[in-house]
Amino acid sequence: MRSILPATAAIMLFVPFASADPIEDREAIMKERSQILRTLGPIAQGRTPFDADTVLAALEELNANAQAHDIEALYPEGSEGGDATAAVWSDREGFIELDAEYRAAVQAAVAAAPEDQQVFRASFQPIGASCGTCHETYRAD
Question: What is the pTM of this model?
Answer without folding.
Answer: 0.84
